[in-house]
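User: Could you go from structure to sequence for me? I need the amino acid at each position, not a summary. Structure tokens:
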């Protein structure tokens, strides 16, 4: 059974991967891919006993186009301060939020139990950090990307990352609409149900589900349904609310995070 500490780390890693193809497991160890300077990957092999996987440039381009269609923070955006209201399955907690691109979330809230605070900080980091831009070639693009079987699925075209997390994507209409990864004995699939279109052909996530399975047996473990809303303030799209409904072991819980009155931080000269 996963300890609380390991579970929280897993939830943070999984959260950062939501709509964030620029995030990789290597980032948790503060390391970079040795192939970070290439624009497209060459055929690689992890060990001498494994077959060489030849990357497919068409699959690479399809996934890169979907990656680049995400709405991200402006290049000169350093962070912001805001009020936060957290409804923890009926208990309302208010506080202050400070977010910086380099250091993440700092939270100052009222009385709250440790598990709920950890969950809240992880969700805020996921919600805000996925908006960071990044060089596709230095993250997912550093893997030998290929197509999976063309199963004509209405979900989208299957793209295989061929990485340590057994990651796969489905792409439809120029967007990532399905992500599957395996971490710490669990396989999870993110299914994007609805997005919010913004200017210049970009989009923001609006409604998606995350389904967790036992990696060995395939048994369903739990599900989570996310609804995100955004609004434009001073030409920047800010998240205003995240609602998470979780079904786990026969129990339904609901948590809502509201971000109010965001104030952009100024970059020191």
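Assistant: Here is the amino acid at each position, in order:
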């Amino acid at each position: 059974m996963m300890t609380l500490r390991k579970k929280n780390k897993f939830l943070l890693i999984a959260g950062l991967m939501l709509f964030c193809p620029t995030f990789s497991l290597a980032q948790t160890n503060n390391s970079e891919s040795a192939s970070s300077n290439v624009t497209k990957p060459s055929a690689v092999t992890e060990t001498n006993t494994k077959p060489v996987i030849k990357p497919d440039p068409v699959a690479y381009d399809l996934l890169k186009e979907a990656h680049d269609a995400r709405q991200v923070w402006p290049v000169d955006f350093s962070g912001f301060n805001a009020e936060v209201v957290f409804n923890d399955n009926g208990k309302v907690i208010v506080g202050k939020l400070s977010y910086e691109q380099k250091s993440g979330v700092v939270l100052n809230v009222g009385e709250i139990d440790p598990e709920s605070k950890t969950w809240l900080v992880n969700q805020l980091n996921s919600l805000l950090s996925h908006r960071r831009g990044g060089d596709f070639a230095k993250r997912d693009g550093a893997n030998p990307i290929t197509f999976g079987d063309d199963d004509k699925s209405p979900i989208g075209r299957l793209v295989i990352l061929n990485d340590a997390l057994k990651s796969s994507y489905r792409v439809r209409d120029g967007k990532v609409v399905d992500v599957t990864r395996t971490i710490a004995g669990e396989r999870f699939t993110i299914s994007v149900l609805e997005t919010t279109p913004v200017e210049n052909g970009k989009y923001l996530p609006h409604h998606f589900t995350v389904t967790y399975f036992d990696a060995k047996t395939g048994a369903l473990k739990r599900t989570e349904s996310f609804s995100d809303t955004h609004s434009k303030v001073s030409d920047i799209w800010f998240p205003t609310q995240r609602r998470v409904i979780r079904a786990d072991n026969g129990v339904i819980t609901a948590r809502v995070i509201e971000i109010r009155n965001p104030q952009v931080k100024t970059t020191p000269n």
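One structural detail worth keeping in mind: The first strand starts at residue 79 and ends at 88.
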